[in-house]
Amino acid sequence: MAPALLLVSAALASFILAFSTGVEFVRFTSLRPLLGGISETGGPGELEGERINWIARQGWMDVLHDHSVLASLARNLGLLLLFVGQHSLMATETVKAWMSRYFGVLQRSLYVACTALALQLVMRYWEPVPSGPVLWEAQAEPWVTWVPLLCFVLHVISWLLIFSILLVFDYAELMGLKQVYYHVLGLGEPLALKSPRALRLFSHLRHPVCVELLTVLWVVPTMGTDRLLLALLLTLYLGLAHGLDQQDLRYLRTQLQRKLHLLSRPQEGEAE
């Protein structure tokens, strides 16, 4: 009973850490750029939208001669590479086999916890570049009013879609909870019960919410220097992590239709 309690406690702790990191990531990628102006990663309590208008922005070539801007970009790049390296290295079969040997059923929970910690480092130590150049910026009316509103609507839709897709892909299994639950009840490994088509899909699809995340990264009223670095590197990473083909897409369509059918069955019963 004690080992099972420890396993469940560890899995729940990993889940709470990952969930809270996800909430913080929404604030980092959406709320700050939409509500705080170009310096979306500045300190709390500052009126970034007003302060940024007083800062003289540099040109793109001027950045090459500004050591403070280059230092901030290098720091941010290092943080992103740390996250990408952790997220990719721990997903390799060699590392997963090693973690499974020493941590058993907690392998997925450990991976999720380490990913959350790496993402926390990125968000906590990210340095904004308020004086850097901008790729685009909504300044004149009516764009200064309507563009942020449109971006806000698209971000809300994207995050709702991300949440829905994660539920379709079995959120408990993605977070490592289902593995521990099955182990405690003696049901084996959840992946062993999945069809070969599902296993084939999971081997190709590292990030099931690629399009929605790209929308969150790029659809912002002001694309500053540090935000551009974040969007470019994560876009490249998401693109390289995908390898879907027509067979995978057909399987996804079939699974979506099944989920929708299951959701509509109680309504049909009530109508009868």
UniProtKB/TrEMBL annotation:
InterPro entries: Nurim-like. PANTHER family: NURIM. Residues 1-18 form the signal peptide. This is Nurim. Keywords: Membrane, Signal, Transmembrane, Transmembrane helix. The keyword Transmembrane applies. It is found in: Nucleus inner membrane. The keyword Transmembrane applies. It is a multi-pass membrane protein. It comes from Erinaceus europaeus (Western European hedgehog). The chain crosses the membrane at residues 110-126, 146-169. Belongs to the nurim family.
